[in-house]
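User: Sequence for Glycosyl transferase family 2 below. Tokens please.
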Amino acid sequence: MPTPAISVVMSVFNGERFLAPAIESVLAQDFADFEFFILDDGSWDGSTRIIRRYAEADSRIRPILRENRGLIASLNEMIELSRAPIIARMDADDICRPDRFGKQIGFLAGHPDYGVVGSWSEDIDENGDKLFRTGPDHPETHEELLTAIECGGQLICHPAAMYRKAVVESVGRYHAAFQHCEDFDLWLRLSSVTRLGNIPERLLRYRRYSTQVSSRHATEQQIGTAVAQAAWRERKAGRADPTADLDRLPSIEELDHLFQRPGIARKVREQVVLSLLYSASALRGEGFDLLIRHLRDGGRRSGMWRTVARLVRFGEPGRALRLAATLTTSTSP
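Assistant: Structure tokens for Glycosyl transferase family 2:
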């Protein structure tokens, strides 16, 4: 078989609800020279049946059906199997614009110094209706992306990313320790070996709903993000990355030992807490315990009384009272 220009990689776990339109949006691309890996990561819903049906109808689809191993293992497996020099990411609940692949591969062809290109996205709800955006769009140039790393901004929307296989393999692909923020860690590692950017067009319709991974694992995601940034600062300073060979991240309390420097754990905890103050799922879960620990350690309290009111709105009056009591008895550093 001739080598395709692009290998598309999509991992699916119990994704039957949105899977068909996601697959169809890839098959409808106006740039058609691709192979399409769809890996069913141990689904027990109707995902396997849907994948088989589309694979029978389109020879570009290369289905992989196996037991559950997790997203990071699935992505690394598909990268290894990919025959094309360019890989396009796609999620099983989003929708590509028909010209996405053509515009991104055109960008990479015209910018050989760029190893990764994403795009802006349009947020949609579970019914496919457009959502109102409140935050800034992703940075366009590599220089803007480096600034975003420094200030904790968005980098590249993972399912909108297209990258050169060789450059991703040169940094060890996705790292197992960074579950639920594996893309953010990868972008940080790639930022020192290649240029990254985004096409300022909404080439992906990004679906947001309450049961998606980023909502269910908000606290774990933010912890991983903060640790990835700490590791990036180590590399930037010319020191060894203590997370490079980890299969999982240690607890926040163990980070001072991991990085061999005091103050890392406290800094990470504060960053995580401040990023979760508007997340109902996080404040109903382990994020609330991190918030209390942060305050008892003398952490920053600015805006915390508004979080008390927010907890009431989230239907958590008991936690609101506990936070108010902590704010009353805690002292500022």
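The longest strand covers residues 195-207.
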